[in-house]
User: Fold this.
Amino acid sequence: MSQEQSANIILTANNLVKTYSQRSGRFGFGTTQIKALDHVSVQLRAGTTLAVVGESGSGKSTLARCLLQLHPFDSGEVIFDGIDLAKIDKDALRIQRKNLQMVFQDPFASLNPRMKVGEIVGEGLLIHKLGSAAEQKEKTMQMLTRVGLQASDAEKYPHQFSGGQRQRIGIARALVLQPKVVVCDEPVSALDVSVQAQILLLLKELQHEMALSYIFISHDLRVVRHIADDIVVMNNGKIVEHGKVDDVYRAPQQAYTQHLLSAIPGRKVA
Amino acid sequence: MTEILKIADLSVTPKSDPTRFLVKNVALTLSKGKTTCIVGESGSGKSLTALTIMGLLSKQLCANGSVVFQGQEISQLDNQAMQKIRGAKIGMIFQEPMTSLNPVLTVGYQIGEPLTAHLGFKGAALKDKIAALLTQVGIPPERANSYPDELSGGQRQRVMIAMSIACEPSLLIADEPTTALDVTVQAQVLKLLDELKTRMNMAMLFITHDFGVVNDIADDVIVMFRGEIVETGTRDQVLNHPQHPYTKALLACVPDAEGLKELKPIDYSWLEHAA
Assistant:
């Protein structure tokens, strides 16, 4: 890889291995090892979206969690900004966390029901001690309005919002710290198609404005086609194919990718 | 007679507030050998319509209107009479196969239940029929002795399908049957449902929010919005030549696999024009 290309890469994972043990056999005396990640390597180019697709159990969510150091992994490295995140200590990692944020799938489960929206969105600023209280409040309000909510919504609780609005809160919470990398784990799977379109457009706009790099985990190959630049296809903990979205969709090389793409419902709809 | 089910002037309201319509003036006709898809967003009334047909509406809700099934008005029937129709003449499949199956009974037993209850099958004849049904939905007949947790999501949904077609119903109602499944499994289950519909000459009412699925399986399409039907037509009419502004707007939100289309969120301004 040339110097110029490698300078463009914001996050790299090399040879990630993650094994889960599961009790097995009658009475659960035995154990089986499940390789959730089997020597997985990915590269995220700055300012672009890398989609990770695959069926349930393919390891895509495990990959997301390992990239953000939310799960320990057995071996391999995750390099962000020249630092191997698995090797640094807790305090150093905490400082890096503001650059690495996550948007979750279920907007009902991922927001604390006892906290006001303003507190949820502003919590990251408080933890990372970014600015004075007034500045934090100001930033929180700005972020809320930017994602399409009202400043007055800061005083409300999550249950007062619809699914789409909650996902906007989740996005505001992730982006208020001005991260560099955002991992979106099935961010639109729980939403109606009309709301899904709004959220996808919002994510695209924000990526442009804030120079964000996305890792977009999804099982919906139609959504991926619209949002991603690059794609990796996972099956049984391994990457079976990777490349530019246009190339992979037009001419999938691996039988598994072809099988997956041919199963997209209604390929010629409207 | 090709007409299997005819609904007219169907409305559903909460008992506590009869002025709030959850389903309003719905009329539809289902015919033998045809798949009719109801599409709409959450809260559009598509599942409530299906539940009303089956007489499974929550006690807090109240339905008005007529539901005629094979020439018989069924909306006023009591629960006992409905039980004779449900599972025998009207089959049902729901979204989440794990919650619809009983975890402590074998799948063979559960498939056999409607056969015993409605058609009086027992002994060797029952066993043979269960094996035949499993084979028909693509599961090895020896899996009759398995429990639901020993099967994958796709297999569980196949078991649900075997159960719902056991008594050869003339109408099959499927409420988002593939939403919880992976795309490859979804494609297989859709193909199976389509084959069964043709082979058994059933009418199928298929509820979904996915226009891709509609394109793959529907003969006719009904679009619902806030409890009302806004558009009906053949698959080609609705998908390729939508007339109503809401249908057009909803279709513009659907991402295509080719990535050629620019996504447009729904602009509700037409609502004010209409009002």
About this structure: Chain A touches chain B at residues 55-56, 163, 192-198, 200-201, 219-223, 225-226, 245-246, 249, 259-270 (CB under 8 Å).
